[in-house]
């Protein structure tokens, strides 16, 4: 193999593949799923994601993304609504990821679907990869883009973590809005999808009461979110799950930021922005593009990780504070937003990529 190997075909891996392929290098992207899948994701994309996608030649509107203009917050009996201070969209992940992978192949990357990598170890002149089917490969450089999933021997140095659940619902969510619903152990985001129906996605403390049951059935998940606020009970009472059980991902290390050696880590393998703030897809695109630049320029992985961490550490710190405060005292946050609606815009701008 002459080009870099990219393990994982989410936004981060695909962005790196597009950028490397456009530079004339021929990366090999290995994705374990046979086709792009729905993922545990709120599917909320803002201007920073739109900018990253534009840099890669993709346009959210052309992909059929649905514009979102307002944010609604609910906890108990309290609600607040603000106008979003930036452009935002809703786009299903299966569609976004498929478009990015198509763009990577069109740019000249060697995109191989249905190829799970079991292990990658340094071999003196690069990396030795072993696929799940036993095939052995060598690559001069490795971009680790496995998202929330760890590769044997290359686990992130991250502790604990939240449980992410996602469910597609039939029925109407509030029009052109992302609705944030506080519930026991965390919060859920509800937003309409472009082709009808809605996406319900939650980040929860796995030890909170009722959360384990919520992960096992769609009805239990909906009931769990519904008990957090009057608004959630009313909205979700009029909707029906389109899946038997939610998609789930455990151990999400919010606040994780990689610094150090190893392969070029991108996306959730490089940083996981706390819930409530920023959007992970924008960060994944940015990190994929930056890793490709670093590889082309001969920058080492530790130097690249240090530069990327310096770029986003400030926003991550603010995001951690905002997220913790909002989850500790949601009613206070909602009262504050009613009095000073500009606060949410300020916090959102300070935690997003410039
Ligand atoms: C509850 C929750 C809500 C979220 N809401 C939003 C939101 O509203 N907006 C937003 O922008 N972000 C959101 N995020 C964050 C966002 O989903 C991630 O930051 C983003 O998906 C990271 O992209 P990635 O490319 O790093 O990883 P992923 O999108 O997870 O892609 C990783 C890919 O690697 C593949 N893979 C894994 N292991 C292997 C292997 N061994 N071999 C080959 N392939 C492999 C997987 O199949 C997958 O396709 C949310 C996250 C959570 C948990």
Task: Describe this structure as you would to a colleague.
With 354 residues, the chain is of the alpha/beta class. It has two domains: 5-65 and 91-158 and 256-320, 3-Layer(bba) Sandwich (FAD/NAD(P)-binding domain); 162-251, D-Amino Acid Oxidase, Chain A, domain 2, CATH 3.30.9. It has helices at residues 11-22, 47-55, 93-107, 211-216, 218-226, 230-237, 280-297, 301-328, 330-339, 342-351, and strands at residues 5-7, 28-31, 44-46, 66-75, 78-90, 110-113, 117-122, 127-131, 136-139, 142-144, 162-170, 177-183, 186-192, 198-204, 240-241, 247-252, 264-265. The strands form three sheets. Strands 3, 4, 5, 11, 12, 13, 14, 15 and 16 form a nine-stranded mixed β-sheet that branches. Strands 6-2-1-10-17 form a five-stranded parallel β-sheet. Strand 1, helix 1 and strand 2 form a beta-alpha-beta unit. The chain is globular. The chain binds flavin-adenine dinucleotide. Residues 7-13, 30-33, 39-45, 49, 116-117, 145-149, 151, 164, 201, 203, 249, 252, 267-268, 279-282, 284 line the site of flavin-adenine dinucleotide.
Task: Indicate the topology.
Layout: E1 5-7, H1 11-22, E2 28-31, E3 44-46, H2 47-55, E4 66-75, E5 78-90, H3 93-107, E6 110-113, E7 117-122, E8 127-131, E9 136-139, E10 142-144, E11 162-170, E12 177-183, E13 186-192, E14 198-204, H4 211-216, H5 218-226, H6 230-237, E15 240-241, E16 247-252, E17 264-265, H7 280-297, H8 301-328, H9 330-339, H10 342-351
Helix pairs in contact: 1-3, 1-7, 2-7, 5-6, 8-9, 8-10
Bound molecules: flavin-adenine dinucleotide (FAD).
């Amino acid at each position: 193999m002459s080009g870099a190997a990219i393990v994982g075909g989410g936004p981060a891996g695909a962005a790196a593949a597009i950028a490397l392929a456009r530079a004339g290098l021929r990366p090999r992207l290995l994705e374990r799923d046979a086709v792009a899948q729905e993922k545990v994701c709120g599917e909320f994309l803002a201007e920073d994601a739109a900018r990253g996608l534009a840099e890669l030649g993709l346009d959210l509107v052309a992909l059929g993304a649905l514009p979102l203009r307002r944010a609604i917050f609910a906890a108990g009996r309290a609600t607040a609504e603000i106008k979003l201070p930036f452009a935002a969209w809703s786009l299903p992940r299966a569609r976004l990821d498929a478009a990015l992978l198509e763009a990577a192949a069109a740019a000249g990357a060697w995109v191989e679907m249905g190829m799970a990598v079991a292990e990658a170890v340094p071999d003196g002149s690069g990396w030795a990869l072993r696929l799940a089917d036993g095939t052995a490969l060598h690559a001069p450089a490795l971009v680790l883009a496995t998202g929330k999933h760890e590769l044997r021997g290359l686990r992130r140095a991250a502790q604990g973590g939240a449980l992410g659940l996602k469910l597609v619902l039939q029925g109407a969510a509030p029009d052109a809005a992302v609705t944030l619903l506080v519930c026991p152990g965390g919060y859920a985001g509800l937003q309409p999808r472009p082709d009808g129906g809605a996406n319900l996605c939650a980040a929860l403390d796995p030890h909170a009461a009722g959360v384990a049951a919520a992960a096992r059935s769609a009805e239990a998940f909906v009931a769990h979110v519904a008990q957090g606020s009057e608004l959630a009970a009313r909205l979700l009472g009029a909707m029906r799950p389109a899946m038997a059980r939610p998609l789930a991902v455990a151990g999400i290390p919010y606040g994780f930021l990689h610094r150090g050696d190893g392969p070029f880590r991108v996306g959730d393998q490089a940083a996981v922005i706390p819930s409530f703030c920023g959007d992970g897809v924008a960060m994944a695109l940015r990190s994929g593009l930056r890793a490709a630049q670093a590889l082309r320029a001969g920058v080492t992985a530790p130097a690249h990780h240090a530069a990327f961490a310096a770029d986003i550490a400030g926003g991550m710190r603010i995001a951690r504070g905002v997220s913790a405060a909002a989850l500790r005292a949601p009613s206070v946050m909602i009262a504050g937003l009613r009095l000073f609606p500009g606060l949410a815009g300020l916090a959102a701008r300070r935690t997003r990529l410039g």
